[in-house]
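Morning F.,

Quick status update on the modeling queue. The single chain you submitted on Monday has been processed. Sequence for confirmation:
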Amino acid sequence: MLSHNDKHTHLRHTQPQPNDPFRLVMGGQVAFVPKGGFRWVSGVWGENGMPDRFLVPANAKAEVALAESPKDSMAVFLALQDLTADEDSYLAVANRFGFLGVPRVHFHSGETPIQWGEPLSFWHHEVSLLHRWLEAWTLSAAKNTRVLRRKLKELLPVRPPANVLPFALGELVHVINAHLWPDVSGEINPTCLECGCACRRVSVKPHVFYAFRLSGEAVVPEVRPVGLLAAAWLGFGEVVSGQRRIRPCEVCGQWMDITDTARPTAKRMHERCAHARRVRRWRQAKRERGSEGRP
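Structure tokens below.
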């Protein structure tokens, strides 16, 4: 058992500190990843033995290390926006930042002794939702009301009104807030088909909280997200509110943050894409000079 001093030391090393850089937080402490990373395993959960894939530590007894610290919420938002809907892409993000923050469920699998994990179906749903609402926001910003109306019909159970632009913005703000409001509730999982247990647990939804950080000798207020998912929606909210600016790269098509660029409208591609283009052009010019007999 930990002594009082040991507990105090443990909390100081696991809770976010006032002079910490931006860090993801999960379950009251900074986010961790298991040494050796995560993996997906097949299993069943719930009273009907629903099959799914589950994100769990690759080694059930592995120690943990601090998750990678992203630059800010916008970096998380862009990382999730760039994801393709497959296990390998999700796994790469988890091995960098930790669990997504969707509810972990009680499951049974012959591949691991671990019985709690994040279902792949939950990852699919949340990442897809973020992608589709970004598409809706893009259509709204471009005032493409005809295609926007079709997109909203896919996303919402109600028929969009005639004045669709303010309606779309209002619904988007509601969805963003729904991912950021705190909500703590006790849950009883459905009786497990495999072991007959009914696991009571407390589910804490990803949310944000207000905190203060030391920057030199100054005390700076900031909003910190709890969980990877909350960080992504917080970054999206900064885009929608106009605090941050993004645009797609002309080369790779991925979104990039142009907020701090000296001339935002002039930035058309990532630095890595611009470098790759220059290298390709240089090599092409060299081949052409060689074919013409010029040095």
